[in-house]
Design a protein that fits this description.
The complex is a heterodimer. Chain A is mostly helical. Helix content of chain A is 57%, strand content 0%. Chain A has a domain of 27 residues. Chain B has a single domain, classed as Rossmann fold, CATH 3.40.50. Helices cover 45% and strands 17% of the residues of chain B. In chain B, a hairpin with a 6-residue loop joins strand 3 and strand 4. The chains are: A mainly alpha, B alpha/beta.
Chain lengths: 72, 263
């Protein structure tokens, strides 16, 4: 029973590696340091908190590359 | 038409030299005329993996500096008549050679050989710049570990910045037992993360160490890693060879299939 719970609860270390790499490589590729990310996060939080109340500790910022279709 | 291939990885110790030795030997075994060049000046190793360390007279830097003719520095492997090695210098450093000189050298070798295989040093500095200077295509070697994959991604980025035509991936030292437990990324995972085409997957095999002890590449033998390297060579020559998948080979249906084929 314990082992069954174990399987459901714990993420395998291979998956953890994959997830960490995916995030790491995004910042590597665009040459963005964690420090810069922290600044971006702080600035975004500052702008948003001008208009509404948010908890900066619960906020998450991710940079990713994606094709965006723009219509007008 | 000859091709210049650089074997690179960024991170050290992932199996660049072993891969170079086996791809070079395998291509020679398949009838191609091949020259292997060790571009790691100061830390030469390809000679010892190939078992040719006692036959070195001249080296890469001697050729570049004109201390000898190119032909004098090329060591012919007696086991495979089509295979030659141009060893690196042990007592010099990477600044002894520049990318322009390497470009000229590979252009010269291209006229005489079907395949020129360059074993690249670890890192992204001068040695790397030298190794990729004259190459047409790159084979990036990585292991399924975060550090090696991160460095491989950096190397792929740099190769793309140089507008490298063809970049392929070899995932080395896979362990089926760990992948099955979920404790190691699979070759598909690595291919997916790096998004370059997978040229081959090599399972962790103790025979690699044994072969290196002997100074004899294992590509022509029947070991698991040897078969994987031979498949890589066939794919380089344009053959369509399926990637060895241990999971599938171990499954009962595959075994049944094998029995039927034999009968």
């Amino acid at each position: 029973m314990k082992s069954l719970l174990h399987i459901f609860k714990k993420k395998s270390s291979g998956d953890i590696a994959k997830d960490r790499l995916k995030i790491l490589l995004i910042s590597d590729r665009i040459n963005c340091t964690p420090e810069t990310m922290e600044y971006i996060k702080r600035d975004i939080a500052k702008v948003i908190s001008k208009y509404m109340q948010i908890d900066i500790n619960k906020m998450e910022v991710q940079v990713s590359k994606r094709k965006i279709n723009v219509f007008w | 038409m000859s091709e210049v291939i650089v074997i690179t990885s960024g991170k050290g110790g992932v199996g660049k030299t072993t891969t170079s030795a086996n791809i070079g030997t395998g291509l020679a075994y398949l009838g191609q005329k091949v020259v292997l060049i060790d571009t790691d000046i100061g830390l030469r190793n390809l000679d010892v993996v190939m078992g040719l360390e006692n036959r070195i007279v001249y080296n890469l830097v001697d050729v570049i500096e004109g201390n000898c003719r190119l032909k004098q520095a090329l060591i012919r492997d007696k086991r495979y008549p089509n295979l030659y090695l141009l060893p690196s210098a042990q007592t010099r450093d990477k600044t002894a050679v520049n990318p322009e000189q390497m470009r000229k050298l590979t252009a010269l070798l291209r006229e005489q050989f079907d395949y020129v295989i360059l074993d690249c040093p670890a890192g992204i500095e001068r040695g790397f710049q030298n190794a990729i200077a004259g190459a047409d295509r790159a084979i990036v070697v990585t292991t399924p570990e975060v550090s090696a994959i991160r460095d491989a991604d950096r190397i792929i980025g740099l190769l793309n910045a140089y507008e490298f035509g063809k970049i392929d991936l070899v995932v080395n030292r896979l362990r089926q037992d760990m992948i099955r437990r979920g404790d190691m990324m699979s070759m598909e995972d690595v291919e997916d993360i790096l998004s370059v085409s997978l040229l081959g997957a090599v399972y962790d095999d103790e025979n690699v160490v044994i072969a290196t002890n002997h100074g004899e590449p294992l590509v022509c033998g029947t070991t698991l890693a040897g078969r994987a390297y031979m498949n890589i060579c066939r794919r380089i020559l344009g053959e369509e060879v399926p990637i060895i998948d241990l999971e599938r080979e171990k499954s009962i249906w595959f075994r049944f299939g094998g029995i039927f084929q034999k009968n």
